[in-house]
C-alpha cells in the first residue's frame, strides 16, 4: 500500500515561486542542487519542481552559508540528520513490532 505524500513533500512548486518565497536567486538554488543539498523533481518539460520541505531546507542552507558554513559541511550534517531519522524509525518499528502495534497504535 503506497503512502500518500504529505502536502509538504509534494513537488509542485516552480523555481520562480521558490525564489519569491526564499529570497534566493535561481542561480543560488541551482548551485545548492549541484552540491547535492536539495533534490527537485523534473517535469516532462524539464522544469524543476520543489516541495515545501525543499523550501524549508533551502532556507536552512542559505542561513548556514551566510554563517560561513561550507556546502560540504552542510551536506555532511544533512546526511547525519537523515541517518539519525532512519535509525529512529527503525527503532520505533522494532518497538511497534514487539508490542504488536501498527503506526504506534493497536
TrEMBL record:
Q: Which residues cross the membrane?
A: none
Q: What InterPro entries does this protein's entry cite? A: DNA-bd_dom_put_sf, MerR-type_HTH_dom, MerR_fam
Q: Name one GO molecular function term.
A: DNA-binding transcription factor activity
Which intervals hold domain HTH merR-type?
Answer: 12-80
**Which UniProt keywords are listed?**
DNA-binding, Repressor, Transcription, Transcription regulation
Instruction: Please indicate if the UniProt record lists Repressor as a keyword.
Output: yes
Pfam families assigned = MerR_1
Superkingdom of the source species: Bacteria
**Which residue spans adopt a coiled-coil conformation according to this UniProt entry?**
none
Matches recorded under SUPFAM superfamilies: Putative DNA-binding domain
**Keyword match Transcription regulation:** yes
PANTHER family per the UniProt record, alphabetical: HTH-TYPE TRANSCRIPTIONAL REGULATOR TNRA (PTHR30204:SF65), REDOX-CYCLING DRUG-SENSING TRANSCRIPTIONAL ACTIVATOR SOXR (PTHR30204)
- Return the protein name: MerR family transcriptional regulator
Amino acid at each position: 500500500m503506497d503512502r500518500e505524500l504529505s502536502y509538504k513533500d509534494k513537488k509542485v512548486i516552480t523555481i520562480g515561486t521558490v525564489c519569491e518565497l526564499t529570497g534566493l536567486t535561481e542561480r543560488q538554488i541551482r548551485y545548492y542542487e549541484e552540491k547535492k543539498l536539495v533534490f527537485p523533481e523534473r517535469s516532462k518539460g524539464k522544469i524543476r519542481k520543489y516541495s515545501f520541505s525543499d523550501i524549508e531546507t533551502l532556507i536552512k542552507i542559505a542561513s548556514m552559508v551566510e554563517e560561513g558554513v561550507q556546502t560540504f559541511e552542510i551536506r555532511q550534517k544533512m546526511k547525519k540528520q537523515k541517518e539519525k531519522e532512519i535509525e529512529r524509525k527503525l527503532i520505533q518499528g522494532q518497538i511497534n513490532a514487539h508490542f504488536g502495534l501498527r503506526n504506534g497504535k493497536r
